[in-house]
């Protein structure tokens, strides 16, 4: 948890001062109730990336609220246990049950490359500090974990994370988790909107065959990134960096999601594959 926060609101130099800044805060009223509600839009990025740019009006709305409604309550032990369980296959199953042997080998190689690159990077930060390597191992295990036991959709989501430099700033909680912790610390009532069961099956209309198809093409993308030596590098066109920039500047719009990021359609090599990729892409 972050123990100290700079509360000064500033506009980053990346932003165009001529643009109107959306602070992603809306008020909610009920004609028969006197209480005031607020809707605040967050993104799943480390709090240290965006909190300094969050408007003071958002902080004020949070301060005067006695109840916080969250997507899901990750401070509830039963919820956490159910989420962990549902993301994994049955205890006697592994991804071998649904992945072709050749694809499994490619994923295994990608994961090992990620581990090697990350540990090398961590050691380069302070070669004399053995704790850095140990901490890096812990971070890798927390993020990657037992990937070979993941259900298809959760393996795909994990691979999507790998398309960004997911190991950057791993010591900071995500923005929404920080807000949840802040609400807990301030003794506010927390009400989850979704159940763990609803979180477990986020794209239930997508078949396992379509997910495996997406996994294969995501691996193709990651293999290209390794060949181009971009996995640990700074990619100016990173969709995550673009998302953060537009969120901080208050210019986040729907077309940002259409322009940026990896598309599995680009990695489909034939007409049938491109049609299937297009169909799968509409589900995510």
From TrEMBL:
CDD domains, alphabetized: Tiki
PANTHER family per UniProt: METALLOPROTEASE TIKI (PTHR31120), METALLOPROTEASE TIKI HOMOLOG (PTHR31120:SF6)
One of the record's GO molecular function terms: metalloendopeptidase activity
Main location: membrane
Cellular compartment(s): Cell membrane; Membrane
Organism: Caenorhabditis remanei
InterPro entries associated with the record: TIKI1/2-like, TraB/PrgY/GumN_fam
Membrane topology: Single-pass type I membrane protein
One record GO biological process: negative regulation of Wnt signaling pathway
Function description: Metalloprotease that acts as a negative regulator of the Wnt signaling pathway.
The EC number(s) this enzyme carries: 3.4.-.-
GO cellular component terms, semicolon-separated: plasma membrane
Identification of the protein by name: Metalloprotease TIKI homolog
This protein's UniProt keywords: Cell membrane, Glycoprotein, Hydrolase, Membrane, Metal-binding, Metalloprotease, Protease, Signal, Transmembrane, Transmembrane helix, Wnt signaling pathway
Family: Belongs to the TIKI family.
Cofactor: record remark: Divalent metal cations. Mn(2+) or Co(2+).
Cofactor: Co(2+); Mn(2+)
